[in-house]
Amino acid sequence: MHRLDLICSERELERVVHLIDAAGAPGYSVVRHVTGRGPHGSVSESMEFSGLGANVHVIVFCQSEALESLRQGLRPILEYYGGVGFVSQAEPL
Amino acid sequence: MHRLDLICSERELERVVHLIDAAGAPGYSVVRHVTGRGPHGSVSESMEFSGLGANVHVIVFCQSEALESLRQGLRPILEYYGGVGFVSQAEPL
Amino acid sequence: MHRLDLICSERELERVVHLIDAAGAPGYSVVRHVTGRGPHGSVSESMEFSGLGANVHVIVFCQSEALESLRQGLRPILEYYGGVGFVSQAEPL
Amino acid sequence: METSLVLQNLLSPPVLFFALGVIAVLVGSDLEIPAPLPKLFSLYLLLAIGFKGGVELLHSGLGPQVISTIAAAMLMSALVPLYSFLVLKRQLDTFNAAAIAATYGSISAVTFITAESFLGITGMPHDGFMVAALALMESPAIIVGLLLVKLAPGETKEDPREGIRWGSLLHEAFLNSSVLLLVGSLVIGGLVAAFSPSGLGKMEPFTGELFYGALSFFLLDMGIVAAQRVGDLRRAGAFLIGFAVLMPLFNAGIGLAVSWLLGLPQGDALLFMVLSASASYIAVPAAMRMTVPQASPSLYISTALGVTFPFNIVVGIPLYMAMVRLVIPAT
Amino acid sequence: METSLVLQNLLSPPVLFFALGVIAVLVGSDLEIPAPLPKLFSLYLLLAIGFKGGVELLHSGLGPQVISTIAAAMLMSALVPLYSFLVLKRQLDTFNAAAIAATYGSISAVTFITAESFLGITGMPHDGFMVAALALMESPAIIVGLLLVKLAPGETKEDPREGIRWGSLLHEAFLNSSVLLLVGSLVIGGLVAAFSPSGLGKMEPFTGELFYGALSFFLLDMGIVAAQRVGDLRRAGAFLIGFAVLMPLFNAGIGLAVSWLLGLPQGDALLFMVLSASASYIAVPAAMRMTVPQASPSLYISTALGVTFPFNIVVGIPLYMAMVRLVIPAT
Amino acid sequence: METSLVLQNLLSPPVLFFALGVIAVLVGSDLEIPAPLPKLFSLYLLLAIGFKGGVELLHSGLGPQVISTIAAAMLMSALVPLYSFLVLKRQLDTFNAAAIAATYGSISAVTFITAESFLGITGMPHDGFMVAALALMESPAIIVGLLLVKLAPGETKEDPREGIRWGSLLHEAFLNSSVLLLVGSLVIGGLVAAFSPSGLGKMEPFTGELFYGALSFFLLDMGIVAAQRVGDLRRAGAFLIGFAVLMPLFNAGIGLAVSWLLGLPQGDALLFMVLSASASYIAVPAAMRMTVPQASPSLYISTALGVTFPFNIVVGIPLYMAMVRLVIPAT
Ligand SMILES: Nc1ncnc2c1ncn2[C@@H]1O[C@H](COP(=O)(O)O)[C@@H](O)[C@H]1O
Ligand SMILES: Nc1ncnc2c1ncn2[C@@H]1O[C@H](COP(=O)(O)O)[C@@H](O)[C@H]1O
Ligand SMILES: Nc1ncnc2c1ncn2[C@@H]1O[C@H](COP(=O)(O)O)[C@@H](O)[C@H]1O
Ligand code: NA
Ligand code: NA
Ligand code: NA
User: Contact F127/F267 with Cβ under 8 angstroms?
Assistant: First the structure.
């Protein structure tokens, strides 16, 4: 099976979750309050009180078909709003 | 070496940690406040004040023997209470 | 591409981030409030009010060159202060 | 039921902030009170209500009426799950029926607090020992809830930790964080009032003056969380929604009858009704998640928090007050 | 401008704790107020200011001056972005110019609160309806900000969700969490004052007495966050830093003229100037992040929070007070 | 030692809530105060104690007794680690001995605050400048702690950042968040009292009235955390547990002698003893973690927090009070 790691702004989380559901993935997990740096600058939690939010790390374990469908939906979002997605292999315990 | 990613309810964390220790794994890391969705429905932090808790993400880097022993102990818990476990390869830095 | 997972005390985070920037990695992500156990004992969040802090989980997706340079810088820190680093393979979505 | 009473409740800060939380969700605003801030308020409210109850319990003493009221409350919390289970079993499997039944046997501290604040506004006195009743109504419901599952034939999956389940259930029933904090603060309040009374005045700004505002703030979050449950409710269906409104009414009626038999004054009778009518979304869901993982939290939390809680807060409290005034003579 | 006025502001707890936060960053201390604690204070301040404003708004009523003041405030928040955009476009691309312009059209609730506290110390009265003006100045600025981007030719990248952008913009403009909490608390304050006045006294320790200390605590965090922006500022350059000081001065001047035209008393005029002069780092950045992701948050947040906010808090408020005293006769 | 004194301390809300936290852990309850809520209370207590101390320091002024008391306190915090180290070296390696020694040279702000509250209850006055002593006792202990490691022959592993260690140690010693917040709030309190006195009354509900309740709430968490350390203690062994009880007693004795020499009144003498007797679990562990990573946090935190802290809170404060009454004449 595949493991998808997605890191993007938490402002995009709702849309990402819709895509994951639509792709038919069996589930997903979300870690909030992630900070970091990428091509668009650094993201901290210091503006959290303002509603700006930090990043989320979304993990999806899924089969190739769901991954393909997710890829189509996620790429434009990552390109427009920033964020990264990486795929690796993982087997169920 | 192996990398085990385990996501389950934080109500089961204590038992999982006991299993990890018993399996002789050299260590583990825990991320709390994980939310998500799986076959048993979605888990949010909104009931956190009630003591219901959210999910945890447990990461274990270990050798095959510890993994095997962990597998025996974890599977019944994941089956009974829900949650997922995935294994991938990782090498020490 | 490579995926580096680094777990160490949050007191070392600043120095680790400097190393990542210096190694020319395209970015990184940080999860705070990580707890766990390793060869040096267990780390909880219960002393967080004291400024002692818990662990951080740092994720870096990067190419081999950056990884090599990171390896040089990180190893002495992990040896001196504790913590673990693991490398696995991951491809961009 | 006088309109002024209804209005005064509806337009009190706690109820209005609850409504604001509901509205925020309905209009899709991103208003949220991030974890663990709601936990801060929830811990604070339990601590403060326990402490104040302990102080008042010391002043009222442990006379026969106090003891019989507390006993009646505990009995109530064991009986409600029994007949609730019979009703729920008509439509649900054993696991979900038992979990929801336990929820309704137990109590909602915030509903109790809101009723207390309402009494404060209407100037009707009540006794501190009612907090002791509140504290002791969670454990019986949890135990009866699991008994119902255990005694239902052939339905239990095997728990991977065979054998230790009962121990951890009793533990969860009596030593879960909200019971412990409530009972602990109650004892502390009594001890301080008895032996260190100069400490009372110094606690008052924290446990007393701040209380109402903190309750209002917490209800803003409760409104958000309750409204987020509306989706689950739709899936739960008309049967459960009906149950979540009618069962509290029925329980309030029983509570009123018991109060009358016990000879409770009006204020205490109202609180007894509210205890009977309310359903737990604090200690019980956590206990059920542990002991009956087969039951779906979305069902028992949504009914208790999404329907019964707002019903009691908005409609129930003034309605029960009107019933009290009809049945119990003013003193 | 009397020195005592400047001193009294500079040496008030909120400003001093702000300075302590700045110092902590400058000396490299590890002092931090971890998330989500600042959010607790930010939610609390909005709730309390709204509630108190609602109570006072009920007492002052919705007369013609109230309505014309609110209308003028909304107009101001739509106009400021327009001329700010023209200035900013000389050096910045459309996206960044529009985002910063929107920021300056909107308001900073904490600057307003600090000015209110300053009025309290100097004993100058002001009206509660100014909070309504505050609440209504965020939405127009957000809308004008996006209009500026949309109407600039050929610059928009395609949003992956074509079409739905306008809906979600209006949503963000009117229903973002700070506007909703502010307006909601304002309405609640008014309702409680009108129908459930016994609730007012019970809220007072929370929304009233605690307020000043909580503001001071929050400003400690604001000092830390503002000082962390200094690095970004260096990259932003002299043009933006100049803009972040001169534009508030200019806007305060316009605000004073409008106040004079409206016949506002001194206290209200000061608040009107502060609303005009302040820049948003709460609702607007979140809205811009969503609708103009091409703009760099480090630019619009750093100017608003790193320069304009401390400038207003430290220098602006007493300066505007001196201007008010020159222009508006005392009543 | 009068029993009423012991009882009044034992049955005060802060001590009882500490006990409740301990009990929660012992019975295995899931009661927890999740991070970062304890940090909120810890920051609040430092801010409030500093602010109040600054106000009082301004009133008492910086006379010779104030200066000599503060100097004595700083000396004490440098000496205690030296003789503690000699004792500890009999059983521990250099790293652990030095880290624990530094811990006992420094102070516990919460123990100090509890002693202040106890003075308040017994009606014994004390001076605000004792807070300045508190604030200045952390840095010397940290520095001496590292000197002990550096001067011990051949034991230091090479730090990957050679050379910069001293700079970052001094930085940590003087600019760590608790020292900075305490000293900063002290200065702010003094400035406000001197130049902006109308701000004092507005801060009072936050820094004054709320204080006692917030302390009690925080001690609930401290009880939980201290009790969680019991397991570590068992591993630490009888030697360290004995040290953690006897060394505070010894230090309190020295503190009493110094107070007598300085001619301090009873209340100040009690506080001086408490400062001498208490051990740090706030600034020092963080500094030691950074500068002596070879030492095991479970040892130095467990002794300071798991033994010495509860000992001082429960037994020490009334005991020191009895000693003060024997030695220092009432004024
Ligand atoms: N190479 C990377 N490795 C790990 N995380 C990254 C990387 N690049 C970006 N990120 C994360 O993705 C977030 C958004 O990146 P961006 O908006 O593309 O700058 C950053 O704040 C980081 O948290
Ligand atoms: N396919 C998946 N990928 C990532 N996380 C998952 C997946 N399935 C389940 N989870 C996580 O595991 C938790 C428990 O799942 P369950 O109880 O089996 O529904 C969910 O709330 C998710 O956080
Ligand atoms: N084998 C492991 N798997 C996962 N996390 C680990 C492992 N070993 C250590 N850690 C993490 O690294 C932190 C520091 O380890 P150490 O200081 O080396 O004991 C621990 O507290 C754990 O969070
Ligand atoms: Na009930
Ligand atoms: Na403005
Ligand atoms: Na000491």
Answer: yes
> What is d(CA A72, CA E160) in angstroms, rounded to the nearest whole number?
11
User: Quick check: bond before F153 cis, omega within 30?
Assistant: no
Q: What is the DSSP letter of D11?
A: T
Instruction: Tell me the residue type at D237.
Output: G
Q: Does B71 touch chain A (CB under 8 A)?
A: yes
Q: What DSSP letter does each residue of F62-127 carry, written as one string?
A: S-HHHHHHHHHHHHHHHHHHHHHHHHHTTTS-HHHHHHHHHHHHS--HHHHHHHHHHHHHHT----
| CA-closest candidate to residue F183, choices F139, F232, F126 | F139
Three-class DSSP labels, D206-230: HHHHCHHHHHHHHHHHHHHHHHHCH
Distance (Å) of CA E296 to CA A41, A42, A81, D109, E95: 9, 11, 11, 47, 8
Q: Cα(E52)–Cα(E127) distance, rounded to whole angstroms?
A: 11
Contact F141, F172 (CB under 8 A): no
Distance from the CA of E279 to the center of ligand 5, in angstroms?
5
Q: Tokens 């696991």, residue?
A: D95
Which residues from chain D sit within 8 angstroms of residue F36, using beta carbons? 36
pLDDT in tens, E144-194: 998 998 887 655 555 555 554 677 788 888 899 999 999 999 999 999 999
The residue-averaged pLDDT of F190-194 equals 95
Task: Name the band, by pLDDT with cuts 50, 70 and 90, for residue D159.
Answer: low
Task: Please tell me the distance from the alpha carbon of residue D140 to that of residue D105, in angstroms, as a whole number.
Answer: 8
- Residue D262: per-residue pLDDT: 96
F151 contact partners, CB below 8 Å, separation of at least 6:
none
Residue pointed to by tokens 């940080």: C30
Q: Which residue has the tokens 């689950």?
A: D232
Peptide bond into D36 cis (omega under 30): yes
Residue A32 has a pLDDT of: 96
Q: Of F306, F224, F167, whose CA–CA distance to F27 is shortest?
A: F224
Cα(E287)–Cα(E293) distance, rounded to whole angstroms?
9
Q: Which two tokens stand for residue F33?
A: 């105060």
- CB contacts of D47 in chain F (<8 Å) are 217, 220
**DSSP assignment of chain B, as one string?**
-EEEEEEEEGGGHHHHHHHHHHTT-S-EEEEEEEEEEETTEEE-STTGGGT---EEEEEEEE-HHHHHHHHHHHHHHHHHH--EEEEEE-EE-
Residue spans per domain, chain A = 1-54
Question: Which of left, alpha, beta for D201 (phi over 0: left; psi -120 to 50: alpha)?
Answer: alpha
Pick left, alpha or beta for residue D176 (phi over 0 → left; psi -120 to 50 → alpha; otherwise beta).
Answer: beta
The rounded distance, in Å, linking the Cα atoms of F19 and A53 is 38
One-letter amino acid for residue E168 of the chain: S
- Measured from the alpha carbon of residue B61, the closest ligand is 3
Mean pLDDT value of segment F117-142: 90
Q: The pTM is what?
A: 0.95
Q: How far apart are CA D94 and CA F313, in angstroms?
A: 51
Pairwise CB contact (< 8 Å): E286 & A82: no
Q: CA–CA separation, F199 vs F187, rounded Å?
A: 14
State how far Cα E247 lies from the chain centre.
14
Listed in sequence order, the DSSP H helices in chain E are 3-10, 13-26, 37-60, 64-88, 94-105, 109-122, 129-136, 138-151, 165-175, 177-195, 198-203, 211-228, 230-236, 238-262, 266-277, 283-291, 297-301, 309-310, 317-327
Q: Which amino acid is at D208?
A: G
Mutate which of C4, C29, C32, C70 for ligand 1 pocket (most atoms within 8 A of beta carbon):
C29
| Cβ pair C5:B1 closer than 8 A | no
* CB burial of residue A64 (10 Å; 0-12, 13-18, 19+): exposed
Count CA within 13 A, CB hemisphere, residue D113.
27
Is the bond leading into D38 cis (omega within 30 degrees of zero)?
Answer: no
Q: How many CB atoms lie within 10 A of CB F137?
A: 27
